[in-house]
User: What shape does this take?
Amino acid sequence: MNSADENEKNGLLAESGSAAGNEELLSGDESAAVSGTPKRANEAVKELARLNPVKRLAVLEAVLFMASEPLKADELQEALGWPAALLQQDLLALADTFAGRGIELSCSGGAWRLTTAPDTAPWVERFLKVESRRRLSRAQLETLSVIAYRQPVTRADIENYRGVRSDRALS
Assistant: This one.
């Protein structure tokens, strides 16, 4: 192995991880489950063993950041090719990384998503120009009540029930 390859390998194994530590999490049947065939599983084990924990967390964070909806652990496992134990460990480590920051990793219904921290809501709402305490007029409340009570309902049904036009209340 030349020195460039050794430097790259050392860089990938730097920080707190090592190939041996990652292979421990990939031992036994889980490594075969990574990609189906034994040959591909061995390649996946070697690839994962080269990734240090910091790089794995960066990859996981990038995937979660780009997801348009919450991702279940099995979806992440399929996309990343990581065994369940390693993925769970990395999800919890990533959640700890975000503790006390403006973004947090939350799990709801078994699906993981990056969200803004609740204590930052006033500033995020101000940035998005969200009016969270807008009051509804009497006409709007009455119209919503009719819709809720008589679903499905058309505009003509609402106007007939209320006895007045509902253009403004529905806009």
About this structure: The CA atoms of residues 55 and 129 lie 36 Å apart.
